[in-house]
Write a structure and sequence with these properties.
With about 400 residues, the chain is of the alpha/beta class. About 40% of the residues lie in helices and about 20% in strands. The chain folds into two domains: about 200 residues, Glycogen Phosphorylase B (Rossmann fold); about 170 residues, 3-Layer(aba) Sandwich (Rossmann fold), CATH 3.40.50.
Length: about 400
């Protein structure tokens, strides 16, 4: 496909890392490597910071909104309409690709004024969405402007399709297998000869289920003295979790906070087991693939988004969410069986390669091509329609 002008639109503040922002960051890079001219539109609460993204255009600051057991920081600006209209008039994009296209206010505003091919990717999965439910009559007009529909997983597709029916194509989140691999140098502080390391990577908020892991690890630690828990990530509940570990006398819990992008692959390479104890609301679980690509077996909650990725007994274990005793047993099983850990790690590396960004970008470009054909056909039909006497 010849080089195109592509615009990626994200509603979320790039200052705060998250699944959607990281997806947009990597997708923009991989599209650029294919020879496409990419612009990224997103809010940022930090003025003058391009966040290392060529073609980044800051559209306003962000406000915090509670959503799906987390906090979403979405962009708002009094000058949004004027800035979007000016940008679209100055740059004729071949495709505009919206991530969470029905989230206020940036994606909807771009959808309102862009008259070319529009593609939407739906990332979220939850039990319900009151915004979709009550706002469906209003949002439907914008949904109908999308010429291509992507969901990152079957659970994400099923969730959004309850409110907006359509022909969704499943294109998963990507993993950079050149960045995550088993041969990375471990982090010294996360490894001790003769000890085993359990790793958690994620935002410290309620839906990630960290208290379940902490309780399970505490029980495990009472039975053995050669295991530690390494926690990578920050969030509103970190202080409370640190106090909880201290109050219950749970030893060797290492809270690392936010770490640089360069260090994260090394933390995975330092682990013997990776844990994702989320209680729900996960549509895919990119951290599972990052661990797998690093050759680390995973223990993950048995929830729809994670069960799409983990093959129980092959590359990891699925464990009931919010069940500390089950987590203690699962972790003990993996820690006691080094050959099984090695086998699962090898299988995980193979699986992660199936999700490499090279394959994901091929699928995204296929959707772009189909969206362009649909948009062109729609424009032709509209043009013919307007010339019919008595119509238009």
């Amino acid at each position: 496909m010849a080089g195109m002008k592509i615009c990626l639109v994200s509603p979320y503040d790039f200052v705060h890392p998250g699944g959607v922002t990281e997806h947009v960051r990597h997708l923009s890079q991989k599209l650029r490597e294919r020879g496409h001219d990419v612009t990224v539109l997103a809010p940022s609460s930090r003025v003058g910071d391009a966040h290392g993204i060529p073609g980044y255009v800051r559209i306003g600051r962000s406000v915090a909104v509670r959503s799906n057991g987390s906090v979403a920081r979405i962009g708002l600006s009094f000058h949004l309409v004027r800035r979007i209209r000016t940008l679209l008039n100055e740059t004729p994009f071949d495709v505009v690709h919206y991530h969470e296209p029905l989230v206020p206010a940036l994606p909807i505003t771009v959808l309102r004024f862009h008259h070319g091919a529009n593609v939407g990717t739906f990332h979220a999965m939850a039990r319900r969405n009151l915004g979709y439910y009550y706002g469906r009559p209003f949002l439907k007009r914008y949904f109908n402007r999308l010429h291509g529909l992507i969901a990152v997983s079957a659970p994400a597709r099923d969730f959004v399709a309850r409110y907006f029916e359509g022909d969704y194509r499943i294109v998963p989140n990507g993993i950079d297998c050149a960045r995550f691999h088993p041969n990375m140098t471990p982090v010294d502080s996360a490894r001790t000869p003769g000890w085993l390391t359990i790793l958690f990577v994620g935002r410290l908020e309620s839906r990630k289920g960290f208290p379940t892991l902490l309780e399970a690890y505490g029980a495990l630690r009472r039975e053995r003295a050669n295991v530690r828990l390494v926690v990578v990530g920050d969030g509103p509940m970190r202080w409370g979790y640190e106090r909880q570990a201290e109050a219950f006398g749970i030893p060797d819990v290492q809270f690392c906070g936010h770490v640089s992008a360069e260090l994260i692959p090394r933390y995975y390479a330092s682990a013997d087991v990776f844990c994702a104890p989320a209680s729900g609301g996960e549509s895919f679980g990119i951290v599972l693939l990052e661990a797998m690509a690093s050759g680390v077996p995973v223990a993950a909650s048995d929830i729809p988004g994670f069960s799409q990725v983990v093959a129980p007994g092959e590359d990891g274990l699925l464990v009931p969410p919010r069940d500390p005793e089950a987590w203690t047993a699962a972790l003990g099983t993996l820690l006691d069986d080094a050959p099984t850990r090695r086998r699962m790690g090898q299988n995980g590396v193979h699986k992660a390669q199936q999700y490499d960004w090279g394959r994901v970008v091929d699928s995204v470009l296929d959707v772009y091509g189909e969206a362009q054909r649909r948009a062109s056909a729609q424009q032709v039909a509209t043009g013919v329609h307007s010339q019919i006497p008595g119509l238009g």
